[in-house]
Design goal:
mainly alpha, Four Helix Bundle (Hemerythrin (Met), subunit A), three-stranded antiparallel sheet, globular
Amino acid sequence: MAKTALRTERQPPRRSSGARRNTPPTKRPRRDVNDGTAEPLADQAYRIIEELIVTLALRPGAVISEQVLSASTGIGRTPIREALQRLAREGLVTILPRKGILVSDINPRNQLLVLEVRRELERLLSRAGAERATNDQRTRLNEIARGMDQAAKTNDDIVFMRLDRELNQLMVDAAHNDYAARSMKLLQGLSRRFWYMHYRVAADLPLCARLHAAQARAIAKSDAELAGAASDKLMDYVESFTRATVSV
């Protein structure tokens, strides 16, 4: 299988299985050490590559390389390698020794198994976050809720995806439960990518954004019962969406 050059522009999902078109990587200044920003380079690399995978700029089945990713992002190969190892633990890529990095496939039936676990963790994190979040975290939760409301009005998938990622991380941080956090981080990227692959056919983005907004507000209100109920309502919708893709 030929290696696929990295494309950083936003790409709509395609269902054809034909040959993939290669495009040259975008050259950027290389950064091998932290350039003074607060975010470590390995975290920057992870965030960039994860978004490319989740939004299908790097499509399932594509084979990529550390060299291409490094040249395209301007980040040195050591942070890229650390990011890829993290993505491999989360199931988004498979590292093929001496061959490259394979972007993992997507399977709706496997996603239903992911949701069995995610439902329980989501409820736990929502309730714990409602009880333990700091004032700053509650403020940011309300800001995310407003952003989700706006994404629902504009039907903006990229804004929704980025807010969803931030909300997931904020819920993990606010719950102060390292064991649940480690488990949840293994599921979040898989869930976001599955959503992006299928939402145009089987999902209601404005509704899903509003359900996320309700969950964020419930956690911010320090109401564990309300937060748990909001989480269950969101997961009910996500499960129904996932089941609908099985027959698409």
